[in-house]
Amino acid sequence: MKLIYGFSIALAGLLTACVPDLDLNPPGSQSVGTYYKTASDADAATLSMYGQLRAMYRDEIVVTPNVIAADDGIPFLTGNADRVAMWRYGIISTNTFVGNIWSNAYTGIQRSNVVISRVPAIPMDETTKKSYVGEAKFLRAMHYFTLVRFFGGVPLVTNETTSLDNVNVARASVDDVYKLIESDLKEAETVLPKSYSGNNIGRATSGAAKGLLAKVYLTWAGANASSPYWAQAAAKAKEVMDMGNYDLWANYADAFDLKNRGGKESLFEVMYITDLAGNNFTTGYAPRGAPIVPSTGSGIFRVSKSLFDSYTAADKRKAATFLTSYVHPTTKATVTLSTDDADPARAVSFWKLADLTSTVGGGGGKSFVVQRFSDILLIYAEALSEANNGPTADAYTAINRVRARAGLEPLSGLNRQQFKDAILQERRLEFAFEANRWFDLTRTGRLLTAVAAETSYGRSPAIKATNVAFPIPQREMDANSALKQNDGY
Fold first, then answer.
1. Which pLDDT belongs to residue 55?
2. CATH no. for residue 33?
3. Cα–Cα distance, 248 to 4 (Å, whole number)
4. Where does it primarily localize (predicted)?
5. 48 Cβ contact partners less than 8 Å away, ≥ 6 residues apart
6. What's the rounded Cα separation, in Å, for the pair 418 and 413?
7. Quick check: is 158 in a domain?
């Protein structure tokens, strides 16, 4: 598919804020004086934004913190030290995972700003031009949404960075970051098409913009029971539901099947190609040394017992989500995996994104689905209940659609707090390994309690109230005198 390839165009890969060694004319790139002239240039610049997403969602940048900094996964103690430090909440400003979130997001923001700045001047079809800018604003909003949830207020850079002058930008307030996200998504939803066909499947659509905005409102509401954003989140989610082009697959596992990329349950996904432009969700998360994947499993982290045991026997999602045993291809013996066995070779693994057709390590081709229709249903249920001081009939209908597919009985008779608890639990089970858990815990004010309760394998997390935000990376602090570090770091 066309969308998964990055393009080396002038300024497309630049970090925007706070980078002292910015190279404004990378070797081999076309200069700004000779680029951004034709409709083809505009398309290439737009597609370069999607190429950046492959790195952002491949495994370690957005996914890993949502697994190990929450309560869903445990890194192997013989693995990356920064990963273990994040799990134990010994997070410092030089942690590489923290730095990668920041740098990759701002690289994506620069690519969006290039399109927003350059494409309007290109003579071409006006509808297509507006769509390109809409895609750029959708993706810029997506990156800022990642940043504000991890760091709080961050520098707002809304123009293309073309020189090293005036790059020391102070942090904006959290509300100002959300206002930019909201503005970008409101514009995007009005100019993006409802759907695409052929090689263009996977580009941002109006439904993707509406869905992301619903999630933004949900997060913006936070733990404020009287927030006006609950009603806005419910209304925006309902707009997606009423579009008529999204639905749940009958079987949970079908939402992640290679043949269903860009299918009816996906609002927006990051696409990969098996063995060509792949992800690491197969080799990376298979049991360590397991000869069932190319290059044998890396075993980056194991599934926590608290997550694994949260699924009831009736829940069909459990078998689709985890690898609990495999047959050794040589000995033909069955290897049983466990959440209790300390041996990395015998640990239960996340498996729903594994691509068993890949033949090279890091060659998985399954999409990382950033937002699925089940997320819209659960956003709607939660927001509607919060806006009405308790679950309504429509809120029950929405969550019970998700539960019915999982093979679970419908919920009923819950008060506001019980329904809120049920929603959060449903989200944990439905979206395991989909970069939602840490965000859900922080927005609901439950991070400290959840992390403190997950103490298996000697975690003993040194978590404190200020850990609801990550530290600003030290490199950015050193490069930008206008930055102020988050409290507690």
1. 86
2. 1.25.40.390
3. 25
4. membrane
5. 6, 7, 9, 12, 13, 111
6. 9
7. yes
Q: What is the DSSP letter of 31?
A: P
Helix or strand run (H / E) with residue 243:
helix 229-243
Question: Average pLDDT by consecutive 10-residue portion of the chain (489 residues)?
Answer: 38 34 40 77 93 84 94 90 96 96 96 96 96 98 98 96 83 98 98 95 97 98 97 98 98 97 96 94 94 94 96 97 97 96 95 96 94 98 98 98 98 98 98 97 98 94 97 97 97
Sign of CA dihedral 150, 153, 158, 159: negative
Alpha-carbon distance 9 to 17, whole Å? 19
Alpha carbon distance 387, 400 (integer Å): 19
The Cα 52–Cα 114 span in angstroms is 13
Domain range enclosing 39: 2-204+471-479
| CA gyration radius, the chain | 22
d(CA 101, CA 104): 6
User: In whole angstroms, what is the distance from residue 362 CA to residue 237 CA?
Assistant: 35
Domain total for the chain? 1
Task: Give 3-state DSSP helix, strand, coil % of the chain, rounded to 5.
Answer: 45, 5, 45
Which tokens go with 189? Answer: 């939803």
d(CA 419, CA 411): 9
The whole-angstrom separation of Cα 262 and Cα 425 is: 27
Length of the chain: 489
pTM, 2 dp: 0.93
- Number of Cβ within 10 Å of residue 20's Cβ equals 12
